[in-house]
Amino acid sequence: MVLQITEDNRQTASALFTADGFDELTPRPAFDYRHYELNLKEASLRLALLIEGMTKVADKTGRFVYQLPDGRVIDTCTYHRWEWPQAIGMNGLFDYYDLRSSSDPSDASAAYILGLMKDWYQQRVEEGIPTKNINSMAVMYSVACLLDSDRKRGKGSVLDDEWRERFEGWVDEWAEWIMNELPRTPQGGFQHVTFRLANEGQLWDDTLMMTVIPLTKIAKFQFLLHTQYLMDEVSGLWYHAWRFDNEAGTSGTHSSDALWARGNCWVTLAIPMFIELTELSPSDPVHRMLVSTLRRQVDTLAPLQDPATGLWHTLVDDSTSYVETSGSAGFAGGILMAIRLGLLERAKYLDVATSALNACLAQVTPSGQVGNVSKGTPAGKDREFYKGIPRMGMVYGNSLLIVALVQWMRITQGEVDEFFAGIDAEEQRSKLE
């Protein structure tokens, strides 16, 4: 089944974001997160399971496959497609590849992960590169990371000439599109254009992860502008979207008063990623403002963590909304990354992050799928919209948990190196095959 979406049929499109008649993926936790002790061996096994499960994520029902008026077919659920969920998947794979290869470039598991990534890119080349929008731009982050690794480790060490030339062409082409063709909101923000909607005059927190992070060299202004309009001044949490009412940018409104978990987790992750990528000095005013923004958000999030499950609710301030794993994994990964970079204090924040990580691991099924992950979500007009989004297997559910696990392992880097050094190369590879 492929859902036909026409320009004048918004009601049909709304069916994409409801769980009515859909068998959701909401398994019971595999264990009680409060009594779970994560160790390096367990983390390694969980990573292997998550990676295998991620490559098998697919919308087998066709319920959420879209066909647009121009004939394009969009599948944001299945691993073997080019859209933002799959881009987040590549980010997770690169994080683990970088961890394994940084100390030993010949590591067998690193080679296997790099092969998975190249296979994914090759299949996308054969299918044809999609049209450009804010979300499809997200793939450029992992592409740029591989180019950077090849440059730092020596030309040809990561990419051969063909891949290097292809990736350099992509980065240049997509960056030029962002800078010269992507519509701007009033005040010069990146308008959140998607494959389906122009979202005229709208700023979304998703944009920071999907487009601003891949363009870190020019991103300071975009980060500050999105913070200005999307962060709640009282709580430090973030709204999903803002729409300007006029071209002058003198008035506007949030899409709703919903404080949505996954939208907030993009911020929790994007701030430490941005600071690390740009190497901002701690004395830089932008650095100081971003760390303050992150701290305010995390301090508000911590007491909102659901004690029964260890997860956050999909509306973080609404305990009547369901608990949601991908946003919770993003919070865990972002907090752990900030601790590793010295942006947040280990003594104060580590327990929050590790309990959330354990709770997310309890949502992994024996087949490597991650339960209680909400489907890709546009900006809703009210809180009820977010509470009704279906939960299903999604690539970013696996990937955000992979990112969190890798950050946990980086915090114990010395122990990680010693642990992997003691594993036979063939055994390393078999864990991931």
Automatic annotation (TrEMBL):
MF-aspect GO terms: hydrolase activity
Domain of life: Eukaryota
The keyword Ligase appears for this protein: no
Keyword Hydrolase: yes
Protein keywords: Hydrolase
GO biological process assignments: carbohydrate metabolic process
Protein name: Glycosyl hydrolase family 88
Source organism of this protein record: Kwoniella bestiolae CBS 10118
